[in-house]
């Protein structure tokens, strides 16, 4: 995964890397975890502008751009291109102006050999003429009508911005082309000498010696041609976009400004125009001014995830888990893993269940044996218990019988005692009156029947006997009959106590 807080810019023309964290530039070694940015060479960009109705949808516009680039801009159907575009509103028109940009993929890869020596991928490949928006976004300069001019060995171009918004771009004469012009004019100079000459003497006539007059005149002629083209471009943009005047011109080479360029531009007719170079950041530098501007621009794009103008054809390879093939493989692996886990889990569960079943069976067998053993013990105990219960019942019956016998005996004794006493008292009274009995019968425990016999001369004794019975507490005394038989009286008396 890339570090979202760090960008490494690799210049396509110099062995130079710029690291940027949004605040500070540094020239540290390439951090492979950072986002990687670079830019295309202006000479590799194919540009074409055309108008379309404002009502055209984005999908329709995208298709229309490709058709126009092949039909009108002359793209080769046998080659592969990366195409992007910008839209610009036009004053007093219902149409919009579309500016399309294309790069030939194989050619661009060759131009990026220096970058590809350090990395296999480029996260953002920028168009250099769009990168000046970062100066406005980060409030390094305030929005005005500005022209940015960059002149180097293999590329030279200008970008026009109105109130901080990009309008258009055009190519200019680069240093290699200037050398060819000088050579035709009889001035021999190589690229290194020309860069040094522009930096030290430039377009300041007072710094040239007598033998360098021809060189100065030719340089003046070439830069006059460049300014003339700039003026023509401004006139065109005035008619199309209402670009009324130039407030500032920012002109720079890779190594800085050209000596005397401010005075030269002023004398050319841009006397009210401010002239600056590209060394605009607070952290001043001695070289690679455009590289810093592009670095800041790419960082801005990453910060807001705006990749509309990204021309990269060497995108970072997605992590394996984000690729479609990776997702399929990972999904398959996940399914296999889950299946293996499920099978393993099922096997483990079955193993545990079988183990538990074996353990439970063993316990069941032990419990069954124990149960059989206890059943036998219980059966024996039940038999013993039954025997004991039977013995207890017998004992209880015996106790009950004894209790009944004792109670009956006590009753009998009491009854005998009562009856004996009863008869004894009656017998005393019979003796008192000299009466004899022929029969004594116990009717109930408290009732007795007596048959009394007496001589005729003692017949009153029976009456007195009955009176004594009453006096001694006997009750219910009745006599059923009193009869006489040969001077003998017989009487049956019932007595109750």
Task: Give a short synopsis of this structure.
With 497 residues, this protein is of the alpha+beta class. The chain has four domains: 1-138 and 285-317, Nucleotidyltransferase, domain 5 (2-Layer Sandwich); 141-279, ATPase, nucleotide binding domain (Nucleotidyltransferase, domain 5); 322-418; 433-496, Endonuclease I-creI (Roll).
Q: What does this entry look like structurally?
A:
The chain is of the alpha+beta class. The chain folds into four domains: 1-138 and 285-317, Nucleotidyltransferase, domain 5, CATH 3.30.420; 141-279, ATPase, nucleotide binding domain (Nucleotidyltransferase, domain 5), CATH 3.30.420.40; 322-418; 433-496, Endonuclease I-creI, CATH 3.10.28. It is 45% helix and 23% strand. The protein has helices at residues 58-71, 105-111, 113-116, 133-137, 175-184, 191-200, 213-241, 261-268, 289-303, 324-432, 459-471, and strands spanning 3-10, 17-20, 25-26, 34-39, 45-53, 81-89, 95-104, 124-126, 146-151, 156-162, 165-171, 248-252, 274-276, 436-444, 447-455, 475-484, 488-496. The strands form four sheets. It has a five-stranded mixed sheet, covered by helices on one side. Strand 10 and strand 11 form a beta hairpin. The two termini are 131 Å apart.
CATH class designation of the largest domain: Alpha Beta
Order of strands in the sheet with most strands: 3-2-1-4-8
SS content category: alpha+beta
CATH topology assignment of the largest domain: Nucleotidyltransferase, domain 5
Residue-averaged pLDDT: 85
Query: How would a crystallographer describe the biggest sheet?
Result: 5 strands, mixed
Shape: rod-shaped
First-last Cα distance? 131 Å
What is the share of helical residues?
40-55%
Helix/strand order, N-terminal first? EEEEEHEEHHEHEEEHHHEHEHHEEHEE
Number of strands: 17
What's the tally of helices? 11
Report the sheet-strand fraction. 15-25%
